[in-house]
Amino acid sequence: MTTSADVTSSGALFAQYEVDIQQPRVADLIAARMRHTGMVTVGGLTSPEAVAKFADRVMHRAVYGGDGPVGLHEVYDTGEHAHRVGQAELTRAAVDVHTCRADLVLPPRLVLLVCIHPGHEGGQTLLVDGKVLFGDLCRRRPDTAHAFLHERAAAFGRTVAAPVFEEVGPRRYALRLRQDGTVRWSAAAQPFLPVLRSAVQRHQQVLALGYGQGVLVDNARWATGRTAFTGPRLFLRAEGAARFRLASGFVSGAMSA
User: Fold this and answer.
1) What distance lies between CA 93 and its chain's CA centroid?
2) Which of 67, 166, 197, 209 has the most CB atoms in a 10 Å sphere around its CB?
3) Are 211 and 118 in contact (CB under 8 A)?
4) Residues in Cβ contact with 107 at an 8 Å cutoff, skipping those fewer than 6 apart
5) How far apart are CA 72 and CA 65, in angstroms?
6) Are 59 and 240 in contact (CB under 8 A)?
7) Residue 208, class by beta-carbon neighbours within 10 Å (0-12 exposed, 13-18 middle, 19+ buried)?
8) Is the pLDDT of residue 247 over 70?
């Protein structure tokens, strides 16, 4: 259940990252914000066509097949995906924060989530900044940070073995995270999982998106999830490569593996 404190915090979070998509040179502003914070929030996306048009301004969009409108992915309770591994987003259940398509060698860099119809209760978007998460672990538990820097810390899906925090350049790291049955942890990483999960919980932020509101995240930095919900909640998702220059990962002064 959402408390009044959650609602206040969510409103402040939305306002902190909000960009008016009607202003001139908005694409340049979004590019600058994404390089700095890795996230922007937007409003006024009240139809699938509006969502697709905005997505195409900021990314080279991967187009979904199936029944999704204008090449977008529909996220709702299908009534058919309960208890399927890795399919919690298509149910009413909570979804642990994760990075999108962690099972791909090269996951999409940008992910856009837009609310077309909020649920009756719950369904808030959860967000964790990987830069904050990694920095916290390096300060509090460097042993845990080291464990998840290992190149084979986890197996994502059937074929991708990778770290949670991948060193992609000098002092630059990329986040890759799943917390469901699609990930298998190495024997060396398993003892540190409670510490990682506790840190993820500690840094979760709540964003209650309303009709036409969305959040655009750098998928190499931010993990997203949601709370359980009731009612006919419908979100649309787009993902793809950025149309603007975006350096690999996020900057951190943390240790190397």
Assistant:
1) 17
2) 209
3) yes
4) 99, 100, 101, 176, 219, 220
5) 8
6) yes
7) buried
8) yes
Among 2, 34, 183, smallest CA distance to 109 is for 34
Beta-carbon contacts of residue 161 (< 8 Å; ≥ 6 apart): 151, 152, 154, 155
Q: What's the pLDDT score for residue 1?
A: 46
Sequence ranges of the domains in the chain? 4-243
* Cβ–Cβ under 8 Å, residues 18 and 41: yes
> CA of 246: how far to CAs of 38, 67, 252, in Å?
10, 31, 16
User: What pLDDT score does 4 carry?
Assistant: 41
Give the neighbor-by-neighbor strand order of the sheet with 95-98: 95-98, 222-226, 125-129, 205-207
May I ask the CATH architecture of the domain 4-243? 4-Layer Sandwich (3.60)
Secondary structure (H, E, C), 210-224 = CCCCEEEEECCCEEE
CB neighbour class for 177 (10 Å; exposed up to 12, middle 13-18, buried from 19): buried
